[in-house]
Amino acid sequence: xxTVTQSQPEMSVQEAETVTLSCTYDTSESNYYLFWYKQxxxxxxxxxxRQEAYKxxxxxxxxxxxxFQKAAKSFSLKISDSQLGDTAMYFCAFGPGNNRKLIxxxxxxxxxxx
Amino acid sequence: DAGVIQSPRHEVTEMGQEVTLRCKPISGHNSxxxxxxxxxxxxxxxxxxxxxxxxxxxxxxxxxxxxxxxxASFSTxxxxxxxxxxxxxxxxxxxxxxxxxxxxxxxxxxxxxTVL
Lengths: 114, 116
Fold this sequence. Notes:
The complex is a heterodimer of chains A (114) and B (116). Chain A is mainly β and 114 residues long. Chain A has strands spanning 3-5, 10-14, 19-21, 24-26, 32-39, 46-52, 60-61, 64-69, 74-79, 88-96, 103-104, 108-113. In chain A, a hairpin with a 6-residue loop joins strand 5 (32-39) and strand 6. The model of chain A has no long low-confidence stretch (mean pLDDT 94). Chain B has 116 residues and is mostly beta strands. Chain B is globular. The model of chain B has no long low-confidence stretch (mean pLDDT 93). The interface between A and B is medium-sized, with 19 and 23 residues.
């Protein structure tokens, strides 16, 4: 069965510092997608970044970047220059390549402290 | 684009009443997902549709829950009769089936349901 594991239930970081959230997954598929979603206190689920498994280059979106290690089945999220608005729950998700449902991690609660 | 639209945003009802949640997906998207989120159980997929057809309803808790998608621009999730344990935030998400970013789900703002 496909699974997604986020081993850090809670994390905290000082404003302007860098933090890395970990995510590992298990699959036998070769074609898939990986996602990080952010859920701030407003509850809105917001896409942060996506990665296609066939691409070796790590995805980046402004201060957010990933470290995708396909062989290790690892997909960590790095947030640089953390801001107070980054305080949120972060979910990692695995998407099979044939339009099936996403497999979700349990989330990491990130607090950015002033 | 207006994004995924859900209504109502908040619903408070009494046990035993019927509750209907509504969702309008992003125009042109072909897949629609209903999720439930609670502190105890986290984010759970209830059901999803491709091209208006239910594909996987294994997450629907019991017969009290039903979902329909009569056309590409509208879906409902109905709970009848409602129970206090149904209190949760219910999200709708949509996804395209082709083209760039077709793998990505976009979420609505959610409906916070409270059953007294």
